[in-house]
Design a protein that fits this description.
Blueprint: H1 12-55, E1 146-148, E2 155-157, H2 172-183, H3 189-200, H4 206-215, H5 217-232, E3 236-246, E4 249-258, E5 261-267, H6 272-279, E6 286-289, E7 302-305, H7 307-320, H8 326-341, H9 348-366, H10 373-385, H11 403-419, H12 425-443, H13 448-456
Parallel strand pairs: 3-6, 6-7
Antiparallel strand pairs: 1-2, 3-4, 4-5
Helix pairs in contact: 2-13, 5-12, 7-8, 7-10, 8-9, 12-13
């Protein structure tokens, strides 16, 4: 707005109008200034937060829950290792149960060519030659004979032999082999069909493979229910979860386990509803997990949080610059884990003394006022879960970390990376039941393929194969 330099020429009404216009303009500018000042303050705050994040260390497998596969190692020159001392020669041990034996007697001396066929000879050199026979399917053609009954003049037919009833043409061992390759070796249906054709000379369509899995659902669901019942009969449970893709959605694979049993559940979410559905009315005395809220407050007596997670959090705070609280906490928790590793050598009174000493040292650490934000955050976390840190010292069956759960989930993570998981919900639930059987069998020193065979036959994993009349596959 251009104002006239000579206000004296304006009459009173014009001056009043000009003053009102200027006041309105001033009010508009004042409001706009307030808005800009508020936006400027917000941007300054955001800029300060981003600058703080720029100063934070990167997340690595050593200072966070980042998986080792996402960790990056710095490249460096290869250091030449000093030449090691030669070690004694080694050879493959002889097989304990060879398929066949050939005792070859010498006919003549290799030195003087004398006839030694009549000389008493003993083994002086034994070795194995390992070969696989030609792989081809064993196909049994069953023809049920029949005719006309001379008594009642009605047609009759022979009853099928046991184990060779009409239905699926594929036997139990073949079905177990297909399930093993699919769910433990993460082989896709297309590749699995080609594998059967190339290695076994057996044409099996992808649809037939899917039908094999569908027919096995009840057997594995029954075995998984037995495993769940044994878990709920115990007093300690451990749990963890990881993501899984089902169709076009992200679901969650949960594991609940302890000692010799492990049960997997695949569910659309990771909330407390999953744990509640698994437990029903049962509540264990003790629970071991990380600090995820969905896994907390389920034990009747006490909860043990994973010290390995807290050690990595402490390392991250150290990397971020905290020198007051995090170093002492990391050292304290590491010593606690070492004590847990030799609990079997310590008396109960010694464990109580260690618990008292660790609590006293933690009291001293919590009285420290960290000068760094990462240290303050970590100290708040420790104050919130302090009562759950050293529960393992009062019960030898409780581990100090949740590493067992992460190890149980590791094959699920590998399967997810290789196959991108499942197209249907029933396949996801079947995989959870199969993983329950295989992981439980592993803890009982039973091979995965043998565990699948036992489950398909409706037999228990708790008894040995010989006791149940099942011949194991050769181990050589």
């Amino acid at each position: 707005m251009i104002l006239s330099p000579d206000l004296a020429l304006l009459d009173s009404a014009a001056k009043d109008a000009l003053i009102r216009t200027l006041i309105e303009r001033l009010n508009d500018l004042t409001v706009r200034l307030e808005v800009l000042e508020a936006e400027n303050a917000a941007l300054r705050k955001e800029n300060a937060e981003l600058r703080v994040k720029l100063d934070l260390p990167p997340k690595t497998p050593d200072n966070s829950s980042t998986p080792p596969s996402q960790g990056h190692k710095a490249s460096g020159a290869a250091d030449a290792k000093p030449k090691a001392k030669p070690h004694a020669g080694a050879h493959r041990p002889l097989h304990p149960n060879p398929t066949q034996r050939r005792d070859v007697a010498a006919s003549q001396c290799q030195h003087c060519r004398a006839d030694v066929s009549g000389v008493m000879q003993t083994p002086v050199h034994a070795y194995d030659r390992i070969e696989i026979p030609e792989i081809k399917p064993d196909v049994t053609r069953v023809a049920l004979l029949g005719g006309m009954c001379p008594c009642c003049a009605k047609p009759f037919k022979a009853a099928p032999p046991a184990g060779l009833e009409p239905g699926s043409p594929f036997g139990a061992n073949l079905r177990a082999f297909a399930i093993y390759l699919r769910f433990t070796q993460a082989i896709s249906f297309e590749r699995l069909s080609r594998l059967f054709s190339d290695l076994l000379g057996l044409e099996i369509s992808e649809g037939a493979l899917v039908n094999m899995l569908d027919d096995s659902k009840q057997a594995f669901a029954r075995a998984a229910n037995l495993i769940r019942a044994r878990l709920l009969a115990g007093t300690i449970l451990q749990s963890d979860e990881t993501s899984v893709r089902v169709g076009k959605r992200t679901w969650w694979t949960w594991v609940f386990h302890h000692a010799e049993d492990a049960c997997f559940v695949i569910h659309p979410n990771r909330s407390r509803a999953v744990v509640e559905q698994f437990l029903g009315e049962h509540r264990p005395d003790f629970w071991v997990s990380d600090r995820l809220a969905a896994q907390m407050n389920w034990a009747k007596k006490d909860h043990q949080v994973c010290l390995a997670h807290l050690i990595r959090d402490a390392q991250y705070a150290i990397d971020a610059g905290d020198t007051a609280f995090a170093p002492g906490l990391r050292k304290l928790l590491s010593r606690a884990c070492k004590i847990a590793g030799r609990r079997h050598q310590l008396a109960d009174a010694t464990l109580r003394a260690y618990a008292y000493k660790l609590d006293a040292e933690l009291d001293v650490l919590l009285r420290i006022t960290p000068a760094h934000g990462a240290g303050n955050k970590l100290q708040g976390v420790i104050k919130g879960c302090r009562r759950y840190l050293f529960v393992f010292l009062a019960n030898r069956a409780i581990p100090p970390t949740n590493n067992g759960s992460e190890q149980a989930l590791r094959p699920c993570v590998i399967f997810r990376k290789v196959t991108n998981c499942f197209r249907s919900e029933w396949a996801a639930h079947l995989y959870a039941d199969i993983r329950s059987v295989i992981e439980t069998a592993r803890r009982k020193a039973i091979g995965a393929l043998e565990a699948i065979r036992l489950t398909l036959k409706g037999l228990s994993l708790t008894a040995s194969l010989q006791d149940q009349g099942v011949a194991p596959y050769p181990s050589g």
